[in-house]
Fold Anaphase-promoting complex subunit cut9.
Amino acid sequence: MGTTHNLTIEDMDKFLRDWRQDAMNKHQYDSAIFIGDKLLAITKSDKDAFWLAQVHFSTGNYTRAQSFLTKQDLIARNPSCRYLAGHCLIKQSRFEEALNILGEKNPTHLISTSGQNRKKLQYTRGHARNGSTTQSSRHRQDEVAKDEAANIKFEAAMCFLRGLCYAKQNAFDRAKECYKDAVRIDVQCFEAFEQLMKNCLMSPEEEWQFLESLDFDTISVADDTSSSQEAAEFTKLLYTTRLSKYKNPAAFTTATETLSTHYNLATNPDLLLSKADLFFTQCRFKDALAITNSILEEDKYNFSIYPLHLACLYELQLKNALFLVSHDLADNHPEEPCTWLAVGIYYLAISKVAEARRYFSKASMMDPHFGPAWIGFAHTFAAEGEHDQAISAYSTAARLFMGTHLPQLFLGMQNHMLNNMTLADEFLKTAYELCKTDPLLLNEMGVVFYHQERLEDAVLILRKALEIAEEIDSDPQAWISTRANLGHAYRRLHQWDAALAEFDEVLRQGGKDPAIFCAKGLVLMEQRKPFEAVLVFHEALAISPQDAIATELLNKALEETAIHGIDGSRIFDQEEDEIERELSLRKDQVLANLRPSKMKGKGKSRSRVVVHEVNSMDVSDAD
């Protein structure tokens, strides 16, 4: 029986490609391989060879995909195939071999030409003449231009793969540059951008500078200038929501509002997570938790949400909720690092530090670049007063996540606890260079200045901490200890009115502790107001009737009142230093109850690094 060949070669190619794509869409990979093999035999096309290798890659058969690309001699002549071959080797953890294929140098010359190429393409299309010959020529030009644009994207993707290889080899500086070059070459290479944000490879200031340096005008949509401009602006807004919330919160708010109102993204999980991250940075833990809860109600196993969600639960001491979450994750997703992070945070919340350390360690072993696990692991040593081991663990975190100030901040805290004020100052300065807008960091710097007798510097930095906390709309109660520290600094400078104002504000905001009343009473006695001081010391004793310092100070105030009447004179002469030392010894126990506990999850993070130090410092040593 004869066969009539009515299909042209082009029609047959299209028929087979459509069939292959349909099989791919249904995840019917055997069908896709079967049809793709026949299509390649007919066309001998590099594109069809690449697609067949793609199917092998999608099945997880990385060795077969790589072997196929090598035998077809596609790696040397085709960027897309070279990219896929490198990706196959990375999936096999053969990072050095992957670098040999990808090359170690980034094509930085494409950074300046990628935008020009696309603009040139738009110009050529916009100025072509009519006519069959011109249309044919224009079609060929379009095909060439599309291939060039695709090759540029694959070159950017190969920069991203180089970054992955260097990160696996712990060469984070080189990884950072590769990721940055990838986004510079192709601003739509979000994978590289996300690696920079997620792993905190840049400081908050660097992140914003990098965003401003990107050429979003290279984005082209349907050869339409207006549409391209809108797409470029949309992409920039999306990227803005991924940046650190320690800088430019107003720009972040503008971006989220625009995306929510103009593009119907108000309930998008990524956008909601960014809002929750901002709330967490502002110490508005209940607001942040409300958002993470709403996301998880719709998508229970969205693991990008969990570091921040768990941090909120910890901050609010919702131990039952932590237990339920960690139990559910352990039952259903034991393969996820987030699961064991949850278990570790639960054990830390119930003060089972050894168990917490074991599970933080497990999470970090499953993903060596999981920031929350590393910080949590270090916190367990800090919680037990194992300062040397805590310093070692925080140092590892600082090396892995060089763009975040948190490990340096925690290193400063540990050295403060060891009374190494010089080292503490150095670490806090390093943290300050990375982030100048974290009130917690500024508080710790103020404490160190206080102990170094740099009282005026302490006042300036503590005031700045409170100003920034107000600017970012942070919960005032989270910064009671900072205000108390400022009051003590004013007291040491004999600025009695300023000190009194700060202590009154601490008491107004709920920091009702005997030591705060004692400090206020001391100031009143210095102001020759012993009668008012008596009333304040009575308030201290009403809270803690057995308080020895309050009792002694009350007796002195009563004695002064009896001798000089209501308008007393300065009482501190020979005994002033002794009283000062006694009060200072009490500040450790006192302000510990007022400290803002911050356990942060970004994570970046933003897996963005999590967990702030469990407690912030106070001015607690002898003055």
Observations:
- The radius of gyration is 31 Å.
- The chain has 31 helices and no strands.
- Residues 117-133, 569-574, 588-623 have pLDDT under 50 and may be disordered.
- The domain at 9-205 is CATH 1.25.40.10 (Serine Threonine Protein Phosphatase 5, Tetratricopeptide repeat).
